[in-house]
Write a structure and sequence with these properties.
It is a single chain. With about 260 residues, this protein is of the alpha+beta class. About 25% of the residues lie in helices and about 25% in strands. The chain is built from six helices and 14 strands. The chain has helices at about 10-25, 45-50, 115-135, 170-185, 190, 225, and strands at about 1-5, 30-35, 55, 65-70, 75-80, 90-95, 100-105, 140-145, 185, 200, 215, 220-225, 230-235, 250-255. Helix 3 runs parallel beside helix 4 (about 170-185). It binds one DNA strand of 15 nucleotides through loops.
DNA sequence: ATGGTCGAGTATCGA
């Protein structure tokens, strides 16, 4: 089972690139973030002709998350599961795809350490853990995929010195991510490439992509039972090249869920 | 050393 995640930075602007990528990467499940679409504007038909069912949780203009699947989509939950404090933004969507509880998440950016938005980010990560507790458990098949806006370790940023005092690398953010890991989730891509400086996001400015000034902030977190069947994975840097790319590349992992 | 770019919407803000 190939599970992928991609922050597309506007699905309206990115639809041709997503269609192209689905055509050759053929993920079983693709989680999208930053669709920047209303639910009414979501292009379900474009994906159904490629063999994918799709669900979307969006508000237009900002945020917006989706799940595409060619192995079924059931039990769809938009936002946090009740009774978790609701999120005013469209940042999480959860569904059951072929026995796997899949969440597509767009974690708040945080903006700066002294910002209210940073406190919102920390609170949001705590609520995500509560959400998972309600909908599933660490002994189930769970994949939480998305733009976490957190570099898990210093190896995940091009120059740790350049990020001192910034969001994405603070101890509090990494602790909040660690809380998800202690719930029972593992960073699947890092398991495959324990020591490699591989990134998933590069700023559009200043030629950052070609200069390898990136960050690995797009993660696929998997529960133990999925991690046991982890086979392979990639960041598809080709999708960050060429005409009208997102500033993020898609990340995917191949897993063979263990039978119970 | 500094500023660089996109996408939203159509002036700026968010990333």
């Amino acid at each position: 089972m190939r599970i992928a995640t991609w922050n597309v930075n506007s699905l309206k602007a990115r639809l041709p690139r997503v269609e192209e990528w689905l055509g050759y990467a053929r993920p079983d499940v693709l989680c999208l973030q930053e669709t920047k679409l209303s639910d009414a504007a979501f292009p379900h038909m474009a994906f159904s002709v490629l063999g994918y069912e799709s669900v979307h949780h969006g508000e237009g203009q900002w945020n917006g998350v989706a799940i595409l699947s060619r192995v079924g989509i059931d039990n769809v939950v938009e936002g946090f599961a009740k009774p978790v404090d609701p999120d005013p933004d469209s940042r999480v969507l959860t569904a059951l795809c072929s026995g796997v509880v899949v969440s597509s998440v767009y974690v708040p950016n945080g903006r700066s350490l002294d910002s209210d938005h940073y406190q919102y980010k920390l609170s949001w990560l705590g609520r995500l853990r509560d959400h998972l507790d309600i909908l599933s458990g660490p002994d189930e098949l769970v994949a939480v995929c998305g733009d976490f806006n957190i570099a898990p370790a210093d190896i995940d940023v091009w120059d740790p010195k350049a990020f001192v005092g910034s969001t994405h690398v603070s101890a509090e953010e990494r602790t909040a991510l660690g809380s998800l890991e202690s719930w029972g989730l593992a960073d699947a891509f890092r398991m495959l490439y324990p020591g490699d400086r591989l990134y998933s996001y590069w700023d559009y400015r200043a030629g950052d992509f070609h200069e390898h000034r990136g960050m690995r902030i797009d993660l696929v977190l998997v529960s133990r039972r999925l991690a046991q069947g982890l086979k392979w994975g990639l960041v598809d840097r080709n999708a960050r090249k060429g005409k009208l790319p997102s500033d993020h590349a898609p990340v995917f992992v191949d897993v063979e869920p263990a039978r119970t």
